[in-house]
Design brief:
It contains ten helices and no strands. It is mainly α. It is globular. The C terminus is likely disordered.
């Protein structure tokens, strides 16, 4: 197995994703929550997909990081150093700015600020200092899953592992559409809304760096696409999409 070096293309994609997220928040999201003084001449509602692009990049990069990690501690330290210091600075800066400005509806206590430093505030019902940070909690849980799968040896078999990730997400959404009770904790635990995006990046990495066959890659990408569609489409439409993908594969 060859080990990937830093890829300039990934940095370029990160820049695109970051600009999309900024554009979305300063236009569409701002207009929905605060309202611009004048109507905007552009519509960047599609730019929320910058977050999904970040998740695809993370799926690729985390496998690359684990292939190069010497130990679990090495992985944990590298991920901690990448996420938390900048996040802590942003939380403290934003939190105390909000307390000083005393914006109605945006009051945050010192306890809120302290809990936000853990990055898991959304999981325990504490108000986020800035809702834009929600995706970092998703990333953190994904890292924990990847560490567990790596230690178990599952990541050495990317085809069944990536397929299982997509299947778990799809099962949750099909159960929801069938009217079955799906605990919110379970949806969160399996990253039902976001796992297929990570899976896309994982499949692309396995194809590029581990020599996974083109047929397996296409099949996994198709499965991930069906799982992504399940998050927004009724179950019947998802089943139809799955049938179409299966027919195309045959």
């Amino acid at each position: 197995m060859k080990h990937a070096q830093r890829l300039d293309q990934l940095d370029g994609l990160r820049a695109v994703a970051a600009l999309m997220v900024l554009g979305y928040h300063y236009t569409t999201r701002y207009d929905a929550t605060i309202v611009h003084v004048r109507p905007l001449p552009i519509d960047l509602s599609f730019a929320h997909l910058g977050v999904e692009l970040f998740f695809v990049i993370s799926g690729f990069v985390i496998l690359m990081t684990l292939d190069r990690a010497r130990s679990p501690a090495d992985f944990v330290v590298s991920r901690f150093a990448r996420l938390f210091p900048t996040y802590w600075f942003a939380v403290l800066l934003t939190g105390f700015a909000m307390r000083i400005a005393e914006m109605p509806g945006y009051e945050r206590s010192l306890l809120d600020i302290a809990v936000n430093l853990t990055m898991v505030q959304d999981w325990i019902g504490v108000h986020s200092i800035d809702g834009a940070y929600w995706s970092l909690g998703v990333e953190l849980l994904f890292y924990a899953w990847m560490l567990l799968l790596w230690r178990s040896g599952a990541l050495a078999r990317p085809v069944p592992t990536v397929a299982a990730i997509c299947a778990a997400s799809l099962a949750v959404h099909l159960a929801r559409d069938a009217g079955l009770p799906v605990p919110s904790a379970l949806r969160m635990l399996v990253l039902a809304e976001w796992a297929p995006w990570f899976a896309i990046g994982m499949a692309l990495y396995a194809y590029r760096e581990r020599g996974m066959s083109a047929a397996s890659t296409v099949a996994l990408l198709a499965f991930a696409t069906v799982a992504v569609a399940a998050a927004a489409a009724p179950g019947e439409r998802v089943v139809e999409a799955a049938a179409a993908v299966g027919a195309a594969a045959v």
